[in-house]
Amino acid sequence: MRAPLVLAFVASGWLCGQTTVKDKPADYPAHAALGTTSIGAEYLVHSIPAGNQTLLTPEYLVFEVAVFPPRDRAVEISSGNFTLRLNGKKQVMYPVAPGFVAAALKYPDWEVRPNAQVIAGVGDAGVVIGRPPVVGRFPDDPRTGQSRLPLAPKAPVPDDQRGVQHEEPESIDQIIARTALPDGSAAKPVSGYLYFAHKGKSKSIKSLELIYQDKTESVTLKLL
Asked: From the centroid of its chain, how far is CA 188?
């Protein structure tokens, strides 16, 4: 049975870290205190470090955020408390749900984008150049048959696989859900990723301000 794509909680109801939290807020490129709670943040551009691999998401800006609660009490964490000010604009940006990021990584053609296609061939045979790859959304997805590109060669599979234990690789959904900044009550430092939609070039970004707002106060972390 496939594991449910939800964030894990410890038995006490407190959040457990989804990424490796640095020792202290000052270890992050940007950090600030809001009362007795400290916030650390790092701008990762489009990269999503996940263990021994790094995913790239060109359509989203990625931030690692860490929350350090006071020693004597837990604090409520919500990704909705964070906003992003880009290039000093008055209008702020809100983080997107991790599921959208996972979908963009899994299905490159899930959103229609402008692209040029060249079709060449003789008679009924032809090759399409410039079309985005068609990715199956589920087993036996008929859309995959629309591609005329030849199938990539596969290594031969040994005849007898009995008694060999194979660890199922972690899916993109699981990676994105596991590493996202979790929502809930935290009594210990916790960290995770936040995503903001951005389809422009990263070179056009001159300033980045990550804003954390609780019920009464706010603090700004300047990342660029």
From this structure: 23
User: Which residue do the tokens 């859900």 mark?
Assistant: 177
Is residue 191 helix, strand or coil?
strand
- 3-39 confidence digits (pLDDT tens): 333 333 333 334 444 689 999 999 999 999 998 999 9
What letter does residue 177 receive in the DSSP assignment? H
211 within 8 A of 83, measured Cβ to Cβ? yes
Cα gap 175→5, rounded to integer Å: 9
For residue 34, which of 222, 216, 191 has the smallest C-alpha distance? 216
Q: What is the pTM of this model?
A: 0.70
- What is the rounded CA–CA span in Å between residue 62 and residue 34? 22
CB 206 within 8 A of CB 191: no
